[in-house]
Amino acid sequence: MKRRISPTLIALALAIVLFFLGGLIQPGFTSFELAMNILRLAAFLGIVAAGQTLVIISGSEGIDLSVGAMVTLGAIISYGLISKRDDRIWIGFLASLGAGVIIGTLNGIGVAYLRIPPLVMTLGMATVIQGLIFAVTQGSLEGGSAPLLSKITTEPLLFGIPGILYIWAAFAGLMWLLLQRTRYGKNLFAIGTNRVTARLSGVNVKATVVTTYMLCSTLASFGGFIFLGYYERVFLNLGNPYTLPSIAAVVMGGTVLSGGVGSYWGTMAGSIVLTLITSLLTTLRMEEHLRQIVYGLILLVLLAAYGRQRALRQ
Amino acid sequence: MKAALNFGLLRRLGRQYFLFSLLLLIVGVVINASLQANFFKPIALVGLLRTYLPLVLLAAGQTIVIIGGGIDLSVGSVVSMVNVILVTRMGAEATQSQVLMAVSLGLLAGILAGALNGACIAFLRFQPLVTTFATSSIFAGIAVWILPRPGGSVPESFMQPYRSSPLGITFPLWVILGVALIWWYLRSTRFGRYLYATGGDAYSAYMSAVPVEWIRFFSYVASGLMAALSGLLLTMSIGTGSALIGLDMTMPSIVSVVLGGTALSGGGGGVIGTILGVFILAIIRNIISFANVPSWWQTLVNGLAVMLILAGPGIWALIRGRRDS
Amino acid sequence: MNKVSLSAQHLVKHYGGVVALADGNLEVNPGEVMTLVGANGSGKSTLGKIVTGVVAPDGGRLLLNDREVVFRTPHAARELGIVAVYQELSLVPRMTIAENIWLGHEWERAGGILRDAEMRQRTRELLALFEGTTHNHLDPDLPISALSPGEKQIVEILKALSWQPSVLFLDEATASLDSRQVNRLFDLIQDWKRQGMAIVFISHRLDEIYRIADRVTVLRNGRTVAAAPISDLSKQELINLMIEGGVATRTNGKRSESYAAGEEVLRVESLSTTTLRAINLVLRRGELVGLGGLQGQGQTELLLALFGAIPYTGQIYLYGRPATLRRPQDAMRHQIAYVPGERNTAGLLPIQSILDNLLLPSWKYYGFPLRIRQAQADAMAVAGGGLKLVMAGLDQPVNTLSGGNAQKVVLGKWLLRRPQILLLDDPTKGVDVGTKGEFYKILSDLRAEGTAILFYSTDDEELLGLCDRVLVLHDGKITAELSGERLVHSELVAAAMGSST
What we know:
The complex is a heterotrimer of chains A (314), B (325) and C (501). With 314 residues, chain A is an all-alpha fold. Chain A has 13 helices and two strands. In chain B, 52% of the residues are buried. Chains in contact: A-B, A-C, B-C.
């Protein structure tokens, strides 16, 4: 058997090449500040895509198309509850995570127990979340981010590196722990590989599925919380542009769409590459629509590399 | 005699996959009629038909893909793409031949979009969901490229048929009839039969000499063409262009299919159910707006109603405890 | 009908290093029924699949009316009139009977519209062949998913017939038919014979063979060892031909000479599922009990029910106390383990490492965060100790292991759990001889430690060589219990075929 080169390494190599390519196109692209800025944006995408990684590893056409709406909800809840006060950050933090837990559990129950296909369940849930946002805010958003939150996520904290990158690093460690050193992680890979084997080995398949969707929405909501720190303002569909990149980052990191294979390191590398590409396209003054086309093409190329299904003729 | 005839008809109806959808639609109509005094007046009904006709075509194409065991998330973007092509190629003063050129170009774009999806999925064996998600991004980008800002117009003569009523029957009804007839024809051909076989059990179909890959390919081409026709009708209806116009149509197209009794697992269902499904969605929205639901609550109520209907069979099965795994 | 005689000469087929067919010969002429018999694993199915174009041979040749032919696909064989009915059905469940029968060769009229009414009419005529033998009246518009296994089998037979075959292969086509349906099929076969059709009938059931066959071809260990008119052979002679060296070598001495039956660990009273009917059995500590019979008589369902993986009715007692098994976790709590034979679909996580496979049922005992070093040590102890696993390391993915080693991993993951009751579902299928020996050694060690084992095997030699008792299942019921002097091959074959010789 031919050994595959780790997709994580390929993505990282690609990131480095893109970074210096950017430097060739535009001197100053390789500056430390810009690099930190790109990593900062990648951290946000990386956190949103973390949950998507789990859902895709769980297999059986697992996918969560409600992450974009969930990012919006998380950001708006934080915005409303924090209302510019540092001492209320933790309330916003806990409430946004709580919303994620509830929505994600509903997604999981729909998929595991009511057997609604993940695509329909999460697309439908996206509408429900959007409706919830409309209903609760009545279109007028009042609140605000807190200075401390922006400081933590945006400004250099130590050695000129923004706080969010330390958070991301710690988060990555936790993701590794979750995937590789917990029973949940082992069960997740098992149900993604073969649900019959998993069941016949005593894995509670349905509970694992529910937990996975729960974690996904919660992490997306956490992403919304971070978003608030970055931009200090919210709007009603701020998360929508992140659903597709969250999937692209996962696929680029070598997580297989049919389930059972993947890592968070890969998704991190994928997030960095996608953010770099976006920055590069912006540097090239490429407009939004062209970026969209390039995004789609990249995803198709990724599918060609990693996402092929088995042939009928054996 | 007549009773026996009706009984036979009822029995045949009872076997149809869309029975549940039909009942749901009837219940919806009853509720709607009680809220909206003029519901059965032609003007209200015709308005409803005109609003939802583009979705009928879009969802019909989606049905074909889903029966074949796939999914097409790019249909909404194809609608946008065709809409902006038509508007930019025409302008208010376009001649007959220019209109014809624009329409041909639009339909060709839809077919090519479908062929791209089909080739990737059928022959290169890409995963359908993410493939069409990716191409959706590409088509949407192309649409913005062609028409960055909403606007443009089309000749009055191009829009006129949409509001006409040949032989006293409103245009949308003719189109829906046409869709139903074409579907009936397709179902009666080998393509139809093979479509169901491919979606039902690709391996058995392959063992029975069904050209599974080609069937998959053509199901996406059909969907692309239907999306283009949907974009054409939408343009006739509104007479202007926007690159975002189809954005919110993909999800309803899939939901209509499911509401119409076609399972996403493939191999069953049909377009007639989907047409009912579109009108279930239409009635739900209509009820919400006539039930004086505050406008900021409408999306939520709509979303919850749809989710509840979709979850209904699963909840029912769970309560009866029949499904054991 | 074209009259066609088919002759297969010296066919050879290897799967990896395993020889499935060493020298397969088969000849069938118009208007005759040739039956193909042989013990499990003798190469019958492989021979049938080569002749009908499903499998490409590694050697030998096929003659059709004395002209050599090569089939690349089943369709190519079908076009020449050679049509097969296989055990695995090729029906699309959501489509109707008529749609399935004509799938791939529909009748069309101008404009591409299918001649549905005519196909339905022809389907009705075909269904009329089995009129009165089915519980439901079979209508061409019924979906396949509404049919019983026997009715599906009938549709599969009619589907083959719709191709108007010159040579018809029936591979265990009677396995899911009841006696009325079998009788009808045999009447029909007589008609088809008269019309000049050549029929190859593959079956395990001796009495059926004697009723229908004109000639018989016997396969043993991948070789055709005899081809003779059926009237020349008695049942006993036929069984002797199927078994290597005749009935003389009945056991190979692997069976432990004496076993002291310990206390009862498992008692099953009138256990029923959708396929099983009122099963009663008792299993004692340190005992190795076999499950025999033709394939698909409910053996797998019995093991799955005892593992809590499928719903059942009836009472199960474990270690003397009544127990309810709703999920595999319940069974595992009672130290029951289940080793499936379909290792790739039910036993392994193919792309995952040996470590992750071995520890899948055990992670909950390793705390948080998981004590990976401890897990590795435990896995190593099992893999290197009892299993003697040949591997590059615990990180090797199991789909790169040989069949035998992969099966050891499936067993190994339960060894870590120290089962008191071990359920084995044809675990040595496709496993090489050397590994089988190691496997038997593990089983005998387990018995010595007191584990009770329930062992289903399609390999008769294995049952005879290893088991203290063998329960023979037929049609969801235990129809015979063989032990002591009666535990010999001829008795086993006879009981499995549902006849007494």
